[in-house]
Structure formats: C-alpha cells, structure tokens
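Hi all, long-time lurker, first post. I run a small reading group and we've been trying to get comfortable going from sequence to structure in the token notation. Rather than ask abstract questions, I figured I'd post a concrete chain and ask someone more experienced to write out its structure so we can walk through it together at our next meeting. Sequence below, copied exactly:
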Amino acid sequence: MSETPGPTTAEGTPDRLSALRRVGGIALLGIVLTLFFVYLGFPYERLAENVAAQVASRSEMTMRFGGAGPQLTWLGPGFELEEVVLVPNRGQAIPLGDVVIRPAWSISWFRGVPAAHIGVSSEPMEASLAIWLDSPMHIEGSIKEFNLVGLTQAGSLNRADLKGFVELEFDLAGSGVDPWQGSAQIRAKNGSFTPPDLGTPIPFESFDSAVILPGDGFVQVESARLDGPALNASGQGRIAWTPEEGTGALDFDFDLEILEPGLPAKLRIAKIPVDPAGKGKLRIGGTLAKPLFH
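-- Answer (accepted) --
Happy to help. Here is the structure in token form:
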C-alpha cells in the first residue's frame, strides 16, 4: 500500500518571513545605532583641524575655531564649528560665528573629488557655500546681509567710513599658489561711504557691481553703479592683486552726476573734478593705500 502525499501548504511561510523580517530589522537597527554612536563619538576636533589645514593650504587665509561637534541637518549628518574666525593674510579678521559643515550632494564624489556644503548664520549675516576640494579648489555660493561697518582697508582707505549691508554671489576657483579665477556679483543697499579726504558721508540707496577674476593677477570690475540721493555714479576698472597689503594698483574711470547742491564744491576741494552743473568724470589711480584722483 503506497502512501499518498498530503497537500502542500504554505502555512509556515508567513511565520518564517516574519521571523526573517524581525531578525533583519533588529540587525539593521543595530547597524544604524552603531553608526549613530560612532557619529556622536567621532573626533570632530581633529576633523576641524584638518579643515583648517585645508583652508590654509588652498587659500590666502587661516581659520580659527572654538570647538567642534556633531550636527544633524535635514539634508544629512554633519558637524558644527563654534566661534569660527577667518583671518586673511591681508586685511581684517572676519568673525563668522557658528558654522555647519556637511557632505554636499554632488556627482564629484564619483570622480574622487570630495565636496562639502558650508552654512553660516551669524546675525544678521547668512552664507551658503559649496566647496569642491579639487586642484584647484572650487567655491561657489552666496553671502547675504554682510555688514560693512568695521571693515577696514589699507592706508588712507582705512579712514573711509563704510556703512551698509552687502550681498555677494560668486563662483571661484584657485589655490594658495595660483591666482584665483571666476566671477562675482556684489550688491549693497541703504548705506554710506565717506571718502578719506572729504569728511562728508555720501549716502546711497543701492550699489551693483559685476566682478571678474581672469587669473592674470587683477580684479576686473566690469561694471559698477551707485545710486543715491546725493549722487549717481557708474564706472569700471581694475585692481592689481599683490601680496603686499595696500600696494595693489588702481585703474578706474567713473562718470558722476551730483544731485546734492552743496556737494560739487566739497568734491572740488578734495581735488575731485566736478563742473558747476554737477557733472564730472573721475579717474582713480595710485594704489589702495594711496589713491590718486584725476
């Protein structure tokens, strides 16, 4: 008498699948928790020091910071540097406050080029930058509400009082050895500028400028336009980029339209040529430390 096989059922399959899911879920949770605690315990101070070393080797500035630690963002995990200060080789230190750095979403990673996103929020300034650690280094981004108060220049321009808020958009590539190349848009609003030899603040409502760094050692100002209640001005020119502070040669031409009645006489006393109708052409030579007006 042969034995007849019984019907094949899948009664045990759901239980086996559930068990596998439970085991897989527990394993995945364990991996995630392990990575999370590794993330929390990562030596961020050492990583921050490496970032500072990269900044120093690839640019003309150094970076100081007060501390470092993990920081979760909605675009991914990163880390935070506290009390960051950038110190250019030439010029005044720039305090940035707290800075959040995370890996940037970029296909450059597939080419072996690390990319990072940097976010700065230091009242009232905000900045968003993407940096590719290639050779040369590539930086693009924007800075909003940068306060001009306290920004100093070399020589006689150090006596020029600047007020207002600036917005910058830029796309640059360079290193600590090769000249930087790229372009930038500069906009300022509701500020004033006091020329060093005039002593009278000149208010402005808006300032717009397009700047190019061609990589030949000059900063080329393709266009600049200032509008305000006292005067309107437009021009173009360039500044030589030199290692010594304040020695960069100036070569600018501006068309002036004076709107404030008493301003032409003050400008003429400061050797800025303006006719009685308030029209004039201004040529600026010399250097950043010692500008000459013609």
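A couple of things your group might point at:
Helices lie at 13-40, 44-58, 263-269.
Residues 13-40 form the longest helix (28 residues).
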